[in-house]
Design brief:
Number of strands: 11
Shape: elongated
Order of helices and strands: EEEEHEEEEEEE
Radius of gyration: 16 Å
Largest sheet: 6 strands, antiparallel
């Protein structure tokens, strides 16, 4: 039950385990670090990332906490912290948009609470487009947690054919024991 609940968080297995909720432009794909016009990533063990295209690309995983071995009574009474982390960057030659939505869901997959930061636009002409981390911890969310939805992605800002949009990797969802 410990460790990252997301499967294939870095693209090591192409797009396996991900539901492609939006797959526009030239669609999602994975690339090797650092990629064309890319940036060095701080963790040498991560060698791949997912990249987006010129129309919206979003991908999602739904984590079933009971199937992962979590006890419903423990989830309801203790309400353990749910930790979310994601890394994203842009290219040095094209701007991009990054989006993230993480939702805690009940047994009917209705939203209990969610973390949805403002979308980020990176412009290489005026922003540092190197890898950035976004993180959040859910606490005191009330009883009923059974599923976690993790969805992220984006696109480029110049509508260039190919894979010039936001790059994502290092995604994780953990539950405090």
């Amino acid at each position: 039950m410990s460790g990252n609940l997301l499967k294939n968080p870095n693209g090591d297995y192409d797009l396996d385990h991900w539901e492609l909720t939006e797959n526009g432009g030239d669609q999602w794909r994975t690339e090797d670090m650092p990629g064309d016009c890319g940036h060095i990533y701080s963790d040498d063990s991560i060698t791949k990332y997912f990249c987006t295209s010129f129309e919206p690309c979003l991908k999602r995983q739904l984590i079933d906490l009971l199937a992962e071995g979590y006890d419903p009574e423990h989830l309801d009474i203790v309400q353990p912290g749910v930790n979310v982390e994601d890394w994203y960057c842009g290219r040095t030659d094209c701007g991009c948009i990054y989006k993230l939505t993480v939702s805690l869901l009940d047994e009917g997959q209705e939203i209990i609470t969610e973390f949805k930061p403002d979308e980020v636009t990176l412009d290489p002409d005026c922003d540092d487009c190197s890898w950035r981390k976004v993180s959040h911890t859910f606490t005191d969310y009330g009883p009923g947690l059974r599923f976690i939805s993790f969805e992220h992605g984006g696109q480029d800002t110049k509508y260039w054919q190919g894979w010039f949009g936001v790059r994502v990797t290092g995604s994780s969802v953990t539950v405090d024991l």
